[in-house]
Design a protein that fits this description.
Alpha-Beta Plaits; about 30% helix; 4-stranded antiparallel sheet; about 400 residues; about 30% strand; disordered N terminus; alpha/beta
């Protein structure tokens, strides 16, 4: 792949920066992957590795190239160029051997609803040419996915949560070393979501897992590492803390201060006093928590510890600190900052001409879900090319 430069964002967040990962067995290797649909480039020269026993969260707004990448990883579609190795096997050169290493759960589980759970899993056992003991292996999979009590029921009569479990069970048949799970908890109730998350963490002890989801809390709760893909490139790769440390050196805190008059005048005086402290970059007065008592959001330059200075300021003015809480960047902050193009894309000359997609944050089934805004500028209302990323 000579002459192919690494994208600035890929270089900045390359996992090679973290040497503790180098000695582990690479179960998935993606090298300079490109996918084009006519003139549209859905995936643009992405590279990453996933190690044995790692749970990788795969994030991205709609239209970013995430689903296209997942489809190439599973061999559902081929790449325009680049290479995918599954447990050392090239998925294009030897697709049968490579796919034998993968258990795949798509967003809509591939179920035959007129079959019983037992018949369906037996069918998948035969389809995958599994060599393990049939009776013992199917029992093990059903016990793991908590399906033992419904093995003789028709799949059509199961709840959505149990159908999702059956879909996960078929992915586990033949004990593949790699599991690729696309939105495994979509549409489930909170209790079912917790059960599936617990199961995924348990599976991560013996399998390499790629988990794709729009639910940011799910990725935060389950995954060891996160990849954020945006506009067809890997925009970030690392743990949430690693990405946040590369993204900004700012530190945030919330401080609740009681003034001496318990009036709105206190709020303005405290804001001005906080802004005068060396190392403070930004101050915002938040809600009135008690009568005349406000919370203040404070951002620092990341180099100066301003807590003692805030304490001295309050003592000199006769004010009381009722609460001081440090607040690091959340995964939501990281996701929005990257996909909305803040800071990082200012350094990428190639992306200055393009606007990152707008993101809407909605609450669905008690979870925060990131979705792309479907509104388009008038000049960009061209019909989407057939075969493009959804």
């Amino acid at each position: 792949m000579k002459g192919r430069g690494m994208n600035l964002l890929q270089k900045r967040f390359s996992p090679e920066e973290f040497p503790n990962r180098r000695d582990k067995l690479k179960m998935i290797e993606v090298k300079h992957l490109i996918k084009r649909y006519g003139d549209k480039q859905a995936v643009n020269d992405i590279s990453f590795k996933v190690e044995k026993g790692e749970i990788l969260g795969f994030l991205g707004p709609n239209g970013a190239g995430k689903s296209t990448t997942m489809n190439m990883l599973t061999g559902y579609i081929s790449s325009t160029s680049g290479q995918i190795l599954i447990n050392g096997v090239d998925i294009l050169e030897d697709p049968i051997k490579a796919k034998a290493n993968i258990g795949y759960l798509p967003e809509i589980p591939p179920l035959y609803v007129d079959m019983t759970v037992d018949a369906y899993l037996g069918f998948m056992y035969d389809l995958k040419k599994c060599k393990l003991s049939r009776k013992a292996h199917l029992k093990e999979v059903c016990d793991l996915c908590k399906l033992s009590g419904v093995r003789n029921r028709l799949i059509r009569n199961l709840s959505k949560g149990y159908k999702q479990r059956v879909g996960l069970a078929q992915a586990l048949i033949n004990n593949p070393p790699v599991l690729i799970l696309d939105e495994p908890t979509v549409g489930l109730d909170p209790n079912q979501i917790i059960e599936i998350r617990t199961l995924i963490k348990k599976l991560g002890k013996n399998h390499t897992v790629i988990l794709s989801s729009h639910i940011l809390q799910e990725i935060q709760a389950v995954c060891d590492r996160i990849i954020i893909i945006n506009k067809g490139v890997v925009a970030a790769d690392g743990t949430a803390d690693e990405i946040a440390s590369k993204l900004t050196n700012e530190h945030k805190m919330t401080v609740r201060i009681e003034g001496d008059t318990h009036t709105a005048d206190d709020k303005n005086k405290i804001v001005d006093a906080l802004k005068s402290i060396d190392g403070v970059k930004y101050v915002r007065a938040d809600m009135e928590r008690e009568k005349g008592i406000y919370d203040f959001d404070v951002e620092t330059d990341g180099e100066t510890d301003v807590r003692r200075a805030i304490n001295r300021m309050c003592t000199e003015n006769g004010w009381n600190i009722l609460m001081l809480q440090l607040s690091d960047m959340t995964l939501e902050d990281i996701f929005i900052k990257i996909t909305m193009g803040d800071d990082l894309r200012r350094n990428d000359s190639k992306s200055n001409k393009k606007k990152a997609p707008k993101i809407k944050l909605n609450v669905k089934d008690g979870e925060l879900v990131a979705e792309a805004d479907d509104e388009k500028p008038a000049e960009n209302n061209d019909k989407k090319e057939e075969g493009g990323e959804e």
